[in-house]
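call fold(seq) -> tokens
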Amino acid sequence: MKERARRTGFTLIELLIAIVLASVVLMVVYRVLQNNQRFYRAQSQIVDVQQNVRAVAQILPAEVRELDAADGDIIAMSDTSVTIKAMRGFSVVCAATDTTAGRIVIRNSLTFGYRAIDPARDSVLVFREGDVQRAGDDRWLHAPAAAVSSGVSCTDGAAGTRLTLTGMVGGTTQLDSVFEGAPVRSFELVNYRLYDDASGTWWLGARTYSSGAWSETSPVAGPLRPSDGITFRYRDAADVATAVTTNVAQVEVVVRGQSAQLIQVQGRPTGRYEDSLTVRVALRNN
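ret:
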């Protein structure tokens, strides 16, 4: 007799057990992957908040540190906003001044800044020596840069840029005591403030004064905590709080960052991650 070939396979019970075990294993793997994804997403949110907080703590002190409050560099100030004359460039005079037309020539090779002088946005400070035997009559002349012309030459033939100044208090005749080598600084009016972008997200924003009007506010860093993401405090030379712009000697900046998304990880309640940093800046010229 021929042996009947033995048939192999699974019974229904064995198949059900295999499906149940596979489901349990897949569920465990899914939970592990889900927890890892939440962890890495939370870490990314935390790093973003810390980077934003540090960015604000670097940008604002750099702008505030070189202000001269007594000379009017702080235009307006509040708990969540400050308007300042932010320095944007430096150069030196390299030719005789034209007191009639209010023109000075600056040396291109000694001009430094993150952008060229913009007549629509910038004003300049020109150092007036006055009597070289006296220090009490030295001062900075302030005037808007009405026009900028390239392709001119310094006294020694080096490349220069001509600035036409208008609106100088006391008149452009004061340029008669501005000599070659005198420092020239350019600045623009900048308003830093805490603002809502209309979507419920708060930022440190900046806007500039150009052609007689304020520009749209642009985000600089964020998201920040609503309402109090940025706080400015102002103190005088005696370390006493002051509301007088010309008396400010120190500015304290408190920045409070907040994550853009909720964080859901084991070991902490579900919610937005927050971090804060406080920086106190002494004005270099006060």
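The helical segments are 12-64.
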